[in-house]
Design brief:
By secondary structure, this protein is mainly alpha-helical. The chain is built from 12 helices and 4 strands; from the N terminus they run H-E-H-H-H-H-H-E-E-E-H-H-H-H-H-H. The chain folds into 2 domains: 173 residues, no CATH class; 91 residues, no CATH class. The chain is 51% helix and 5% strand. A 4-stranded mixed β-sheet has the order 1-2-4-3, with helices on both faces. Helix 2 packs across helix 3, helix 7 crosses helix 9 and helix 11 runs antiparallel to helix 12. The radius of gyration is 21 Å and the shape is globular. The N terminus is likely disordered.
């Protein structure tokens, strides 16, 4: 019986943090201004995402007491009818819910929040069941992930930030980036970001060093990747093509992943970047690899200008990509 998403704390803790580097290793470089992260493990934010996840990935509640099972079934039915067909990132209603739930992490009463009709009552009825059955474990998972990524950021973040800012030719935000850590998002892609990031700590692929990569990847969506996306879109339009290519996102993944791999290598750690590890570069993004090899790698190494690299890649971008 799948009451809630299957999440095991050990998958987040399996990758122990690396030992400090020997004294002979040079200190990390410093970005002009270090990006700050505001981490949250909020009850209502987690409850919302759990119910969304259960609406798109149905579960059985037969093992629960009748009143608890009924409360969850009603809540999941509401989410299935109202929200399961909506995208967490791009749908305006879902974005408004996320903003409304960006309250004190300990708050459990949704009354008075600017929520769509009926949602506050659904959350209020489901909250006691979630609080008893899953929240302590989910909160522990979230906080373990936060501790892990904060330690990684303290060790390697300056190097990563500097490399990403150079690669994307744009700085990270000067104001703290809100990071809402949840057990599961229910979204196929996992994390998502507009002006704040929501990251699923319960996914094994987001643990260990990958936590650092996903932190900086999602934070780059707030503003750092905007110039790259706009530049590629402009070149595509100039060629009479649509501007919906994934090239910018592939380059963002590659840039952040490479920055993390290079940063941890100074401690003798061989890290495989997320997009490569989960198969994106061998699967749907494989056609982009020749473009990266021919121009993006030379650009990151300082052997080609950003303008030339983008011009060459867009000119050779296969149709449909």
């Amino acid at each position: 019986m799948r009451l809630l998403p299957s999440i095991v704390v050990s998958i987040l803790l399996a990758g122990a943090l690396p030992a400090p580097a020997p004294a002979a290793v040079s200190a990390p470089a410093q970005a002009a201004q270090r990006v700050a992260f505001a981490f949250h493990s909020g009850f209502l934010m987690n409850l919302h995402h759990v119910l969304y996840d259960l609406a798109v990935h149905p579960a059985a509640f037969d093992a629960l007491p009748a009143d608890e099972a009924a409360a969850l079934r009603d809540a999941v039915a509401f989410y299935r009818a109202q929200y399961a067909g909506r995208d967490l990132l791009f749908d305006a209603t879902m974005a408004s819910i996320r903003r409304a739930l960006s309250v004190d992490d300990a708050r459990r009463d949704p009354a008075g929040l600017d929520l769509p009709p009926g949602l506050a009552d659904v959350l209020r009825r489901a909250a006691p069941v979630y609080a008893r059955r899953a929240w302590p474990a989910h909160d522990a998972i979230n906080r373990a992930w936060i501790r892990q990524v904060a330690a990684l950021d303290a060790r390697y973040g300056a190097d990563v930030q500097l490399a990403v800012e150079r690669g994307l030719a744009s700085p990270y935000p000067s104001t703290p980036v809100r990071i809402d850590v949840v057990a599961e998002t229910g979204k196929r892609q996992g994390a998502y970001t507009d002006t704040q990031a929501v990251i699923p700590a319960g996914r094994a692929s987001y643990g260990g060093i990958a936590a650092l990569e996903m932190l900086y990847h999602e934070a780059a969506h707030v503003q750092s990747a905007d110039a790259l996306e706009a530049a590629i879109a402009a070149r595509l339009k100039a060629q009479g093509r649509t501007d919906d290519s994934e090239l910018w996102h592939v380059l963002q993944f590659y840039t952040v992943g490479t920055a993390v791999a290079n940063a941890v290598r100074r401690d003798g750690i061989d890290y495989v970047p997320y997009a490569e590890k989960v198969g994106l570069m061998r699967g749907p993004w494989a056609p982009f690899q020749p473009l990266i090899d021919a121009d993006w790698k030379p650009y990151l190494a300082g052997r080609e200008s950003l303008q030339d690299a983008l011009a060459h890649m867009v000119a050779r971008l296969p149709a449909g990509l």
